Model the fold of this input.
Amino acid sequence: MNDAEQAIAIAIIVIPLAGIWIVALTHIIAKRSDLSLGWKGIWSTVVIAIPYIGVLIYAFVRPPTPLRGDRDSDPTATRTAIDEIHRLVSEHDDGAITDVHFASKKAAVLGLGIP
Done:
């Protein structure tokens, strides 16, 4: 292999890995609002100290992104569910629906299926 072929082979390997490394650092620092500053520092140090192995460690060990506080979630859907539960509680307290009907309708609103 001559020098040009070696440079091309290295570029084919290094450039994608560097891209993944930059994406991981960006994800840790900018996108993970659920991590404290200390955890961001720890994860950034791991990814920087052992660049490619650190990225793999972060990808497999990192805490999952929480469902609560998700920027893509629809707050009106949650508000609608809360309003529906309040309505069901009122109907149940008034005696308009039985305990069984209340439990099944509440489970349906919460997406839990029929108990």
In short: The chain has a mean pLDDT of 80.
